[in-house]
Amino acid sequence: MSLKRVLIVNKTFPIAGIELLNNKVQHKILPYSDNEPESLSEIKKNIKGFDGIIWNTKHQLTKEILELCGPQLKAVTTMSSGIDQIDVEELKKRRLPLGNVPRVLDHAVADITVGLLVAAARRFKEGVEELMTGQWKYGVQWMIGQDIAGSTVGIVGLGGVGQAVVKRLKGFEVAKFIYSGRNDKPEAKYLGAERVPLDQLLKESDYVILSCPLTNETKNMINADSLKIMKKNAVLINIARGGLVDQEALYNALKERQIFAAGLDVVTPEPIPKEHPLLTLPNCYVVPHLGSATIETRNNMAKISAQNILAGVEGKTMPFPAF
Ligand code: DGY
């Protein structure tokens, strides 16, 4: 019996995942041709005829691409927790299972969240810039930032990452954790976090942390109106998806000091052009989507997507189905 065929659409897929696929499926990795990242045209040209696809690329998996795959396609998995790069409705229409990779990245992303929060609150970017340009000044009013102890932290989306963030920040002696989301989270009770409407969270929080999925409902949830109701000392942290934030509105709010600072692991587009206005602001600390970028985490993510696809191509339930 011939092995099922699996396409991995980006060649940076860790070897830990490839090892699980070896001898179990026949796998190919894009791009075939050069050292450039996979282009959409190359994906389209080569996607036909596979039983399973590991969609580990920044490109969108659209209806058009699904049509090019052919009727033998049995399953798709991401190598990410987020699934906003996938046309989920199209997959559902075609009764194709989708896997994703939650949980194993919670710790790594929570670490980055805390790093960004401290960096933005304590003005690392401005401080380093002044240091490097010989403007380090002494004096008790130089480079004054925000306290974390005694603050109110608002988490938008208390999923695995949000919960891991709360656990870490408890050590910082935060006074109050609040969260917003579609449902009550049972874990909130032992974490000591109270569910409140989003508006209340925005009004009361000294730190607003975005850790929810990007959907039609959450797109641009942070916009000119929501920034207006945030506290003047507020620090906005986004470790989820750039699309949650109206970046022009954020730029204006930071420039006008309507809020204190922002720390962003995610932006739109990625990569963001180096001349982008947000990057010019001293109070906007941006890192290039490093959330899950640790060896152990990325290896675990690759292993889970391999396990998802191995199950999916055999018509079995994936270990981590996305729906
Ligand atoms: C994910 O997996 O969705 C994360 O954004 C990766 O950092």
Q: Can you give the helix content as a percent range?
A: 25-40%
Main sheet summary: 7 strands, parallel
Q: Outline, from the CA principal axes?
A: elongated
Poorly predicted runs are: none
- Determine the N-to-C terminus distance: 30 Å
CATH topology type of the largest domain: Rossmann fold
What is the CATH superfamily classification of the largest domain? Answer: NAD(P)-binding Rossmann-like Domain
Distinct bound molecules: (2R)-2,3-dihydroxypropanoic acid
Structure classification? alpha/beta
What is the CA-atom radius of gyration, in angstroms?
A: 21 Å
What is the count of structural domains?
2
- Helix/strand order: EHEHEHEHEHHEHEHEHEHEHEHEH
CATH architecture of the largest domain: 3-Layer(aba) Sandwich
Number of helices: 13
Proportion in β-strands? 5-15%
Strand order within the widest sheet? 8-7-6-9-10-11-12
Q: What's the overall average pLDDT, rounded?
A: 97
Question: How many β strands by DSSP?
Answer: 12
Question: How is this structure best described in words?
Answer:
The chain is α/β, with parallel strands linked by helices. Helix content is 35%, strand content 14%. The chain has two domains: 5-102 and 295-313, NAD(P)-binding Rossmann-like Domain (Rossmann fold, 3-Layer(aba) Sandwich); 106-286, Rossmann fold, CATH 3.40.50.720. The protein is built from 13 helices and twelve strands. A seven-stranded parallel sheet has the order 8-7-6-9-10-11-12, with helices on both faces. A five-stranded parallel sheet has the order 2-1-3-4-5, with helices on one face. The protein starts with a strand and ends in a 10-residue tail after the last helix. (2R)-2,3-dihydroxypropanoic acid is lined by residues 80-82, 105, 289, 291-292.
